[in-house]
Amino acid sequence: MTAVTLPEVLTVAALLFVLGLVAIFTRKNAIGILMGVELVLNSANLNLVAFARFNGLDLNGHVFVLFVILLAAIEAAVFLAICLAIYRRFRDIAADQVRELQG
Amino acid sequence: MVDVWLERILFYGLALVTVGSALVVTFGRNLVRSAFALFFTLMGMAAMFVYLAADFVALVHILVYIGGILVLILFGIWLTHRVIDLDIRAGRIQLIPGLILGLVLMGLLGLTIRSFNLAARTPAPYRATASGIGRLLLSTYLLPFEIASVALVVALVGAIVIGRRETSR
To answer: Which residues of B touch A73 (CB under 8 A)?
Structure first.
């Protein structure tokens, strides 16, 4: 019996990735979709950190995770601003209700 | 021997908390409850970062995700529902196709992970990472670092412009 190996960590990250993707596909509410996106980004971060640890603690992966976290914060701020603007215009942010751009 | 078992129990406990609350995030019926489940997912993720010897990344993760993004998400939920909606239902579409796609993708990812011989790799010993990350950020990654700060300013100004109320026109 050995300590936790790399494939086990990658499996946990893959589970989180799939759960996030299912949330993106099945949620109607735009903020539910945002939560799915956050799960997907987090699972990618977990993969990067795991590979860094099992590659002699290579810090390049950690720097990449920091940039991903920063972009996730930017994306969340802009996403919620757009949600508020859409809500003021349509009184709803369900992905299947706001269809004025569909022509 | 005992410490190896303790390590496994620790890791699988964390994985259970993280994936279990991620299930609530994905399939929960109440959107506010999903957001609070996301809190536990993010905390479990931060603990796993610490377990994987990424102490600085774990701290930044807690600060940005739990201190920033989660609060933004909660305010977003409450600001985009009428006050009379006491329980905020989260409708679902395409549940069966989404589930099938998720299962197929999980199988593919599992096969991919198994097809590489990754189990033989040994984990690096723990050491502090903050100084190394700082050195990398200010030497190799200096240009992306500066571009990231510009992107942050642009995105914040853009979010304010999009999100503010229309004044008299």
So the answer is: 64, 68-69, 152
Q: Could you tell me how far CA B111 lies from the centroid of its own chain?
A: 24
In a domain, A19, yes or no: yes
Residue A20 lies in a domain: yes
Burial of A71 (0-12, 13-18, 19+ CB in 10 A): middle
In a domain? residue A1? no
CATH number at residue A62: 1.10.287.3510
pTM value is 0.90
Domain B2-163 part of CATH 3.50.50.60: no
Task: Give residue A39's Cα distance to chain centre.
Answer: 4
Q: Is B129 an interface residue toward A (CB < 8 Å)?
A: yes
- pLDDT attached to residue A29: 85
Flag if B93 and A76 touch (Cβ within 8 Å): no
Structural domain range at position A18: 6-97
In a domain, A103, yes or no: no
Plot region of B28 (φ>0 → left; ψ -120 to 50 → alpha; else → beta): beta
Query: Between residues 32 and 71 of chain A, which touch chain B (CB distance below 8 Å)?
Result: 32, 34-36, 38-39, 42, 45-46, 49-50, 52-57, 59-60, 62-63, 65-67, 69-71
Q: What pLDDT digit, counting tens, does each position of B101-153 carry?
A: 999 999 999 999 999 888 888 888 889 999 999 999 999 999 999 999 999 99
ipTM of the complex: 0.89
- For residue B16, what are its two tokens? 């259970």
CA distance B8 to chain A (A): 6
